[in-house]
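Its record is quoted verbatim for completeness.
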Amino acid sequence: MKDTKTMACINMHGILGCLEDLCWFSPEAKKLASGKPTAVTFVVTDGPSMTLRFRDGACIAVPGGGLCDIRLPFSSHEKFNGMIDGTVTPFPSKGFTRIGFLTKNFTALTKILESYLRAKPETLADNDFFKASTVIMFHLIARAVSQIGNNDKIGRFSASNIVDGTVVLSIGGTIQAAITVKDHRLTTSRVIPEQYHAIMEFADLKLARDVFDGKVSTLGCVGNGLISMRGNLSMLDNINRILDRVALYLA
């Protein structure tokens, strides 16, 4: 079963964090993130918080609160998850004069993001869209691993068995994310350290997409060499156990 706090953390840092990549790949999203710089902070009581900073056609996701133009508080994890699902309308505690950005720009951005995360076969036929969608999904999954490892009961058990160090997830050696473990707490970053302890690498984008979509078996791809796993196998085994939980939350 899904844990509501874990789901809120994935929605906050995982889903909303995808807006960074979306603004990089999508000209339409870049246009929506242009204009007057705007910072939107999301705060969940006894839960996660994050600030999205939109400026010059880009979006930067910053964990935590801080200075913002619009502040959206949520009294529970369920209500924040409801905003992501489209069943709850947030009410700002700050930024009433900037409400237009939320109702127009931000809402439009989330709709574009959905088209990339839940892409239709006909849109994936376009090579550029296929790459963008797969890269966005890859970084979402990498961030979700840390949120599940830190919050989900089963995920925390796997994390408790991971020694300190860094595991790199990679597609073809060019698209990468690092999951660093410290005192059994996981952090996902795009910065790859010079030295790491293990790596799990997909041969190419198509293979990664097939795995993400559940079209091929990860175990089978490891067996035939399409997915390579090198380094500390115990770390990789436990990261893979957490990865198994990602599909449950992102389904």
In short: The mean pLDDT is 95. Residues 127-151 form the longest helix (25 residues). Residues 4-118 form a domain with the Nonspecific Lipid-transfer Protein; Chain A fold (CATH 3.30.1050.10). The chain has two domains: 4-118, 127-137+146-250.
